[in-house]
Structures are given as C-alpha cells and as structure tokens.
TrEMBL record:
Span of the signal peptide: 1-28
GO cellular component: membrane
Catalytic activity: L-threonyl-[protein] + ATP = O-phospho-L-threonyl-[protein] + ADP + H(+); L-seryl-[protein] + ATP = O-phospho-L-seryl-[protein] + ADP + H(+)
Compartment(s) where it occurs, according to its Swiss-Prot or TrEMBL record: Membrane
SUPFAM superfamilies: L domain-like, Protein kinase-like (PK-like)
Top EC class, one word: transferase
A molecular-function term among this protein's GO annotations: ATP binding
Keywords: Glycoprotein, Kinase, Leucine-rich repeat, Membrane, Receptor, Repeat, Serine/threonine-protein kinase, Signal, Transferase, Transmembrane, Transmembrane helix
Spans traversing the lipid bilayer: 362-387
Protein kinase domain: residues covered: 452-719
Protein name in the entry: non-specific serine/threonine protein kinase
Amino acid sequence: MKMGNFWVSLFCLISVLILALFSPISTAQLTPSETRILFQVQKLLEYPQALQGWTNWTNFCYLPHSPSLKIVCSNNRVTELSIVGNKTSPSQTPKPASANFAPSQQTLSRSFSSDSFFTVLTKLSSLRVVSLVSLGLWGPLPGKINRLKSLEVLNISSNFIYGEIPTSVSSMKSLKSLVLADNLLNGSVPDLKGLTFLQELNLGKNRLGPEFPSLGNSLVSIILRNNSLRSEIPSKITSFDQLQQLDISSNHFVGPIPASLFALPSIRFLNLAANQLTGGLSMNITCNAELEFVDVSRNLLIGKLPPCIGSKSVNRTVLYSWNCLSTAYMRYQHPYSFCQKEALAVKPPGRGKKEEKTTTKLGLVLGIIGAIVGIVVVVGLLVLIIIRRKIIRRSGNNMFDGSAVDKMSLRSSPRPNVETRRVPQTMRLQSIGLVPYRVFTLEEIEDATNNFDPSNSMGEGSQGKVYKGWLSDGSVVLVKCLKLKQKHISQSAIQNIEETLPKLRHRHLVSVLGHCIVTIQDHPNASATIFVVLEHISNGTLGEYVTDWRKKELLKWPQRMAITIGVARGVQFLHTGVAPGIFGNNMKINNILLDDSLSTKISNYNIPLPSKVGLERPLHGQDSGENGEKEDIYQLGIILLEVITGKLVKSPAELNEMKLGLERGIAESNFKNVVESNMHGSYAFQSLKTAVEIALTCLGKDQNRRPSIEDVLWNLQYAMQVQEGWTSSGNLSTQM
C-alpha cells in the first residue's frame, strides 16, 4: 500500500510540473529586458520612496496602484509609468539661472544625467503614459524623447527641467496630453499645430516666450500662466471650437481682448489676469451660456463691463479689479490716466502709428463716457445710502438683522426660485482627477469592508452606518450603508437613485465613486440596501486646523479665504448643480475635510433619496426647498465665524458674543481683538471686513434676508481679490 501511494504521489507531482511547464505565461509578466530597465530607472532616480522595496521577485505588473506609483502592463510590456516624488518644485524655491544651474537638496544629485535617464526610459518602447512628477529631475529635456512613438500622455511637471522644449516633440503624433508645468523651461515653444490629437497643453510656471505658441485647434485645455509671453492674443484662437479652458494669466500680453473669445462654443474657464491688455470691451459681446469663470483683473482695461460678464452674470464668477473700469467698486480700480499712461508704454508689437492713434482716441472716448457714467452711479449710490440710513434709523430693527447688516457693502444678485436656479453643466465637470464612476457588486463591497468587520466601522451618520474599505487596487474608500424599507420598492425609485448618485462628484465634495444596490422583493417586508462608495480623505477636519496649534500655523488669511471659498462652491453645487437641489446638509466645521493640498471637501451631506421611500431610521436635518437652503446658509455663516476667529461655536451664547465682537471690529476698523491671533498682520482690512459682513448676513434671524449661496460666493471671491491686490502691492506686515 505504501509503495502504491508513493507512485500515485510521484505521478501527481510529475503532472503538476508538466502543466506548469506547458501552461501559457501570464500576459502581465514583464519580459526580462523591461524588468531590467525598471531597475535602471529606480537607480537613476536615486531610489525614491515610491520605488523602494523592489526585489528580483517583484512582479511589477501586479504592484498595487497608489498616488505615488502606478505601473500598467500589456502584452508583457510596460504601457504606463507614473511616479510622484516629494521634491519641492521650482515655484516653491528660488529659481536659479539655468545656465548656472546647481543641484540642490530638492533635486537629484550632481551625478544625475537627464540624457542618460531619458535614454533608458525610451527603451520602454510601448509606453503610452509617462508621468514623472516632483522627482527632482534636472537638466535639459533631450530630443530623443520622441523615440516613444506610442506616447499619448507626457507629464514631467514640478521638476527642474531647463533649456528649450526640443523641437522633436512636434513629431510625437500620438500625444493627447503634454504637461511640462512648473519647471525652468525658457525660449520659444516649438510648432505644435501638427499634433492633431493634442487636447491638453500645460506649460504654466516656466519662462517661455515671447510669442504665443503655434497650436492646433483640437485643444480642450491651454494653460500658459506664469511665463514670459509678450504678444497680442492671436485671433486664430477664436476658432478653437473645442477649447474649454484658457489660462494665460501672469504674462505680458498686450493689445485688446478678442471679443469672440467669450463666445467660443465650448469655453468654460477664461483667465486673462495680470497682463497688459488694453482698450475697452464692446457692450454688445455675447458669452457662452456655460462660461463659468472669467478673470480680467490687473490689466489696463477701460470703459464698462459688457452685460454678459457684468450685471447679468449671475451664475458666473467674474473678477475685474485693478483695471480702469467704471464699476460700482471704484475703490479697487485705477484712475483712467493710469491705464492711458501704461498703455502707451506697452504698445502692441508691429502696430502702426495710425492704428495706435485710432485706438487712443477710442480709449479716450470710452474713458470719458465711463467716467461720466461712474460719476452718475456714485452720486446715485450716495443718495440711496442717505435715504436708506434715514429709513433704518426709523425702523429700529435688530442689531444684526437691521441697522448693522444693512450698512454692509455686500453684493446682491437676482434671486430666482430655488428649484429653477441651475448652474452650468461645467460645474459637474469639476470631478476631473477622480477615478471613473462604477457600479460595484455585493461581493466587491463585502471584500472591501472584510464582510463589514466591526473594526472597520467609522461610526453612524445621519443616513446610516459608514465603513472604511480597501478596493482591489489598494485605494482606501468609505462605504455608506443606506437601508430603505417599503412594501413595494418601485423600479422608478431605484432608477432615480442610480441616475442621481453619479452626479455627486465635485472637487469640493467627498465625492461618490460608485454604488451597489441590493433589493429583496420576495420577502414580505421588501427592502433595499444602497451601498454608496465615497472618497476617503485622511488629512483632518477644518475644525482641527482651526483649533490645533500644530496645524493652525498653516492657515494664514489667504489660506482661510481659499478654504471658505471651497466650502461655498461645494454648497453651491449641492444647491444648484443637481436637480432637485440637495439641502439640509449638516454644515458643521468638523464635516469639512481638507486634503493634502488643503483643498476643501464637504462630507456627510445628504444623499438624495425618493421621498416616498421610508428609511428604517429618520433622516435628521434633511430638508428641502427654501427652508433647507437658508439653514445651510446659516450654518455656513457659523463656519465662517469659526474660521475668522479661530474659535469653535459651542453654544448660542458664544455665537452671539462672537457676532458682537465682530460688529465692534467693523465699527472700530480694528479686528485685532477678535480674529485668530495667528493672522495678525497678514490680512487686508477691507478683505477681512467683507468676509465678516457676509458671515453676519448669513446669520440673520430672518431667513428671508439671508443671502443666496451665489451672493456668499461672490463676496468671498471679492474679499480674496482684495487680499491678493493688497499683498501684491507689498503690504505684508501691516494692516490696511
């Protein structure tokens, strides 16, 4: 019997070996040569943290994807290599002259050779995506980069690459995205109009110029900000029918703004700030209905703003300070003579004397008209203020709801019905950077949460239990469990949920990544469970940053402004970015999360559910329509006060005390005794005053007098604009 068992075992072993020998090799196993190249890349990059732990047994094609490393394989070859390091980018360090470039602690060592590195990299001939960010790469970008014939995405941002962009880039016909931002590149940009598939071009934060690059009209996004471009805006750009984003801010562009730029059929984002653009804008120009953001501030524009980016731009953010425009906010405009003088000093290249004379005359006429209109507006406003103050004195209203708030110089916009006020579709495009939305199976949800192990429980929110989970690619998520109960759950109700959840994706929300719906129809007590998979943000809450001394050092006034603007944009999306709007969103400072870049993420907002479907537990705070909107505005006001003062509101008495303190600060033109001490000396008084005023208005007892979210957002952005102008003028240590 023992001998028989021996021969049986031997036969089985031989069979296994034969199967192993003749079984096909996995297509995800790299060839030995490509494996050797990856080890060379690791060595040449001087063993960054993302590439540590590799051994001869590492199967690179099965390494879990992470924010710092992603390797994708196909047919035994690497097709995507994405590495993110932790080296400080040039924009955060003094920029040395490239000719005398000396490696520093933020770059790779002196022994690094960009030519050798890219020679090795191009041996991965099947690469379609290369992303090498913040790795301390330095030296010129070699022309041999075009050996990567299949390359579709090239991202070498936030390094120290200097010299000119090689002309060989023009021959990389498969390129769809070219990102060389935040380096030390200089000189002219090569002719890229032959790259017919190129959709994204980001060359921001370099020293490129002086001419606007020659580009093809298939581009969707063009970012050239913070360079040395000195030319007119080319007229050809007005034929870019697919262009959604154009950012040429902080350059030296001169001449007029092409009127048709605002009406491009796909344009969503337009930033022309901090240039030397001159002349007036025609009052008859039209704007794309979905143009969401316009910034023409810090130029030399005269006259008035056209209606489509002025008084009628309700759902559009428009920044226009520090020009010579005739607006209601004349304090933040230069006098007309300033723009006339500066315009003469920055004549557009190649323009004849006759054309200059005509432009000057036109500018003078527009300036005179603008000045007259401005005087009339100012006089009219003074009369209205005098009349209004008399009425207020007679009325004797509540301190916060009447006299104090009415004196505040806040911007107000038309107030359409809550359900009909809808923002442009582009607001929903602010989910760029998120993984694609997907529908999960129950098995995947169970695997992610380890069968809902209690150790993975993150507590219970207003709508159900929340678990921490890990997807198969290693990414961390949250899984919210919503249990619905009803005798007969209709198909239309489930369909409505499935259509709504994928819309809850925005840069200032803890966004929905996917869902799974499990229904039990045959059971007498029919029920359904919705598992909502959400982003996991692990950098702490806004409340922690406001109160923890180790973190609050990061939050100077500009950072606090950026954070509150992010909160307002998130609320705006919830109110108007989906239909019907989502209200009663439990707006508390500890439900505001901050990611690694201190960008705002609103968590614990209401997941919209069919009104006829009963939850097994009540939804606390869920409301709809005008009441829910005004409650969110009130809670947003509390968050603004907490961010400004650095103190958390723990009771109504504390809230009233904080409001009184800020009221006194406005009256005495001194906020030192009431704002966060860490901010002293770092803010413009008018900027802080505007933020305080809108916060107090949000907290009005009469909810009908509380501002709309659009008004809140406009005033916060205006306060940020004032702060930026104050800072750029050199006021870094004293209050205004």
